[in-house]
Design brief:
Layout (H helix, E strand, L loop, with lengths): L1 E7 L3 H12 L4 E4 L13 E2 L8 E2 H13 L4 E3 L5 E3 L6 E4 L4 E9 L3 E3 L15 E2 L2 H4 L7 E5 L3 H11 L4 E5 L9 H9 L3 E4 L2 E7 L6 E6 L5 E5 L2 E4 L3 E3 L29 E3 L11 H21 L1
The structure holds NADP nicotinamide-adenine-dinucleotide phosphate.
The site of NADP nicotinamide-adenine-dinucleotide phosphate (NAP) has 22 residues, from α4.
Amino acid sequence: MIYDIAIIGGGAAGLSAAIYGARGGMNVVVFEDIGYGGQINYTSEVDNYLGISSVSGAELADKMRAHAAKYDCTFKSESIRKIENVSQPVKKLITRKNVYEAKAIILATGAKPRKLGVFGEDELAGAGVSYCATCDGAFYRDKTTVVIGGGNTAFEDALYLAGICKKVYIIHRNTRFRADQTLVNKAYDNPVIEIITDCVIEKIQGEHTVKSIVTKNTVSHRIGVIDTDAVFIAIGRVPESTLYADFASLADDKSIITDEKMQVGIPGLFAAGDVRKTPLRQIITAAADGAVAGAFAVSYINSI
Ligand code: NAP
């Protein structure tokens, strides 16, 4: 069968696009191979989504999936490996086992954690080095952990870990935080958290598990060692756009450039959420992107 709209990614952008597509009378398929809700699942608490003053990331992800499932969408737990015939009226989406066809495609693959690029990061990945505090924090009950970064993710991670660990360090490379001031204030007020600024990580040490990190003060250049059981790296995300590099225009940060209707420049091809070039990456903006992409995918199909 030929689907009207195929959506790659089941996070806030993809599920929102699915709802708008299905409500527009379209036959919609959503591909998500890891977990519906996408990056929302890595957030312990969401308190800035309009209309819901506080909810866990996992619960919001479940609600979004359930909301989309109310409509007659098809959900596939398959990973898209290739897109072919992208400029044709019927495009092909290729997974390991199947080939699917759709008239419009919405790219909503989100972003993946940025790597720090220091010695020990890959060697001790899964053995104390983590990119997801809500997934792995519970392993470090009453232990010492380090969170690297100065954005909302780093501060949310540190506040989450402070409820579990005996000591949490936030290490940031300068003194200016990108995190919302309310989160920064909460972290400074939390006796479990110690914030170290003007500090970079030289390496992560440990034989089978993380034991310590070597730090360098960027002002004094003084080298230090902090004993820790885990390192949570929260230094931003990289758009998951590799698959689209052949046909979509990518910005310097690898995000997909779209117009205001989320069109990518090829008829029937749209992008939404964190994978696209956007000045604000939030759940609410991803959901809004999905709504726009879904609505204009409907208009596109009705026009052909
Ligand atoms: P971010 O806002 O881009 O912050 C990344 C942080 O990591 C910055 O402090 C940056 O430092 C630092 N950094 C980057 N590369 C580094 C490196 N190589 N070594 C050391 N530090 C490095 O990333 P994020 O916190 O993951 O947030 C991503 C987006 O999601 C943001 O738009 C954020 O607002 C949003 N978000 C929102 C919520 C929420 O609203 N509830 C929760 C989580 C995330 P510099 O400042 O020096 O560049």
